[in-house]
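Ticket closed. Logging final result for 3-deoxy-manno-octulosonate cytidylyltransferase.
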Amino acid sequence: MLNSGGTHIVGILPARWGSSRFPGKPLHLIAGKPLVQHVWERCRQCRQLDELAIATDDSRIYEAAEAFGARVILTSPDHPTGTDRIAEALASLPSATHIVNIQGDEPLIDPELVDELAATMAAHPRLDMATAANPLDPADPAVQDPNVVKVVTALDGRALYFSRSPLPYFRNPVDGLPVYRHKGIYAYRREFLEKFVTWPPSPLERAESLEQLRALENGASIQVLPTLDTSPGVDTPEQALEVERLLSAAH
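Final structure:
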């Protein structure tokens, strides 16, 4: 066990079959390996995770992940979000004190970012959640894109709000103040996650379709770590081809 102080940090990759835009995405072959295997192999390089598992709703993903050596947990197909899937998987991980929710479709995820999230949770036992964000130039077109989620933080780095709208609105220019693009990776205290999934979707969450707002609306503390890791997710077959090109260029 790498972590001290009674912490046991588990990385979980939620992987579901029924993506509306890309069914069967976790098993889509990229450079000869299933997409989810690339993510799992990157996370195996992490030094702060005591355990790593894949949580899936599908026997095909389960069997493929077992074949490449992963710990796999079969969950219900009825979960509305990956967070709910992870919460169910926790029943099979009784020693876990903290969880890092790693998107199963980011084959270029930086292991150091996962480690930084895990270390932040271990160092601050009262922190409910941690996540990450990329700084953007306020003039970047992504700031206006509702598919790009933005976050603003307090001076100590805690999240104040997440939105699909431009955030903040620059009525006045402020030198050195970037816009932060939220990166969809989360770490949680176990007790907080188990409580979170019992809460109904909150008003702002329903308005923006962002479940992290449920945490803020219920008074949770979310530490936001700035990162230069801009690893792309894979949401379409075309993006899978682009990731394959990036992987080939790296070798």
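The chain has one domain: 9-250. No further action required.
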